[in-house]
Amino acid sequence: MKRLISFSFIIFMLSMSIVQSQTVYDESKVPNFKVPDALLTFKGKKINSVKKWEKVRRPELLHYFKNKVYGRIPKTLEIDSYTVLEEDSNALNGKAKRKQIALSFKHNNKSLSFTILLYLPKEEQNPPLFLGYNFYGNHTITNDEAVLISTAWTRNNESFGIKNNSLDEASRGKRTHRWAIEKILKAGYGLATIYYGEVDPDTNDFSDGIHSLLYNKNQTQPKPDEWGSIAAWSWGMSRALDYFEKDKDVNANKVIAFGHSRLGKTSLWAGATDQRFAGVISNNSGCGGAALSKRKFGETIEKINHSFPHWFCDNFKQFNNNEEALVVDQHQLLSLIAPRPLYVASAEEDQWADPKGEFLSAYYASPVWDLYNKQGIEHMQMPKVNEPIHSTVSYHIRSGKHDVTDYDWENYIKWADTFVK
Predict the structure, then answer these.
(1) 317-367: per-residue pLDDT in tens?
(2) Confidence (pLDDT) at 21
(3) Does domain 67-419 have CATH number 3.40.50.2300?
(4) Could you tell me if 86 and 146 are in contact, meaning their C-beta atoms sit under 8 angstroms apart?
(5) Is the per-residue pLDDT at 7 higher than 60?
(6) From 107, 113, 238, 402, the catalytic residue
(7) Pairing of β 96-107 and β 81-90
(8) Residue limits of the 4-O-methyl-glucuronoyl methylesterase-like domain (predicted)?
């Protein structure tokens, strides 16, 4: 009898686990939850001025996200040196200047470098700039044969011809559709990109990226409150901005952090932690990015920590199936970008990323922009598909899947023309 009861209990627990892990795509199954007030301190005091926001509320929110979600960076590490590997003032059939720059870092007898691919409009002086990571190497965003191929570890991708975790000519130009280079240049903007795997390979191994340069003696992985990969990639964006401040060809005061999917989470965290970024774009960033965690819609904290245990700090795992214990939500991450311009974008078919949760996050963050007399999202009703809201805090949901399209870039450029340029 005891064995039967024990077996029944195990079956019950397994069934409960399955129920808990089921993905919610039905609004009627979204749990009741309370959205934490962006302007109410952890001690329950209302924030009603820019001064109190900047002195009290913003610092405590940033501290919480650093220690409980993305992880804090244990030490300061600046650029040791940079080298212009290649440049051409007549690139892309005379439409652009191209520059490829390696940034190098050294610490603890270890070194790391990553390469920035920079395109600038030929006729513009000190143009504003979109900065974003790519997933498979700088050479994949263009058919430009002069773009160098990374030697860093890369995830295999049969459709791109990537084998043995290494890149070659077979993958050149495979992601051109995500980067509207000519459109960006024609609008008077520069574009800079970095292969994210050069900063930290996207695997659950903290021995081969930037983390290992900052370890204490005998340390082999980050402490529970120390940075995961998203924070490491964000750190890399800030170091690129350090370089741009030294490059006379770039307007470093007008650099917009851009990112898609996991790299959209990265651009948001970069914008939150580094106020030098003039604007931030989140494209389909979903869970741990723009989407509200407490909705438990699509990808959840448990699911993302199970599939990608290295992206966030270990402390974030405390909230697996325990979103109620979070005293923040992702709209408060967005609020850390205020008063700078922010664009949150979703895709209609990308339910995994919870488009409604992304929109609501932008809406609930907007009162912080109000403090600065900047226009946020004023109404709780989501806009129709392909009918963007353009303001200091902008949002659109376009038709289609999880991707970056020309439609997205057209709207980002229009927004940047008004609020950044």
Answers:
(1) 999 999 999 999 999 999 999 999 999 999 999 999 999 999 999 999 999
(2) 67
(3) no
(4) yes
(5) no
(6) 402
(7) antiparallel
(8) 225-370
* Count of residues in the chain: 421
Handedness of CA 350, 420, 256, 180 (dihedral sign): positive
* Measured distance CA(185)–CA(181) in Å, rounded: 6
Which residues 6+ apart lie within 8 Å of 185 measured at CB? 92, 95, 96, 119, 120, 121, 122, 191
Looking at the predicted structure, is the pLDDT value of residue 2 above 70? no
Q: In what order do the strands lie in the sheet with 110-121?
A: 81-90, 96-107, 110-121, 190-195, 129-134, 255-260, 279-283, 342-347, 393-398
Q: Does residue 366 carry a catalytic annotation?
A: no
State the pairing for strand pair 190-195/129-134. Answer: parallel
Please provide residue 216's backbone torsions phi and psi, each rounded to the nearest 5 degrees: -75, 175
pTM above 0.85, yes or no: yes
pLDDT-based confidence at residue 184 (cuts at 50, 70, 90): very high
Residue with tokens 């005891």: 2
Contacts of 206 (CB under 8 A, 6+ apart): 212, 220, 221, 222, 310
Domain ranges (residues) in the chain: 67-419
254 vs 192: CA distance, rounded Å = 13
- At 249 the three-state DSSP class reads coil
Q: Is the peptide bond before 309 cis (omega within 30 degrees of 0)?
A: no
Alpha-carbon separation of residue 194 from 197, 274, 305 (angstroms): 9, 18, 25
pLDDT tens, residue by residue, 246-299: 999 999 999 999 999 999 999 999 999 999 999 999 999 999 999 999 999 999
CA distance 290 to 203: 23
Residues in Cβ contact with 400 at an 8 Å cutoff, skipping those fewer than 6 apart: 347, 348, 349
* Cα→Cα distances 169→6, 162, 166, 198, 332, Å: 58, 9, 11, 18, 42
- Residue of 261, 335, 346, 361 marked catalytic: 261
Cα dist from 193 to 15, 115, 175, 228, 348, whole Å: 45, 9, 13, 21, 26
Tokens for 224? 């529970």
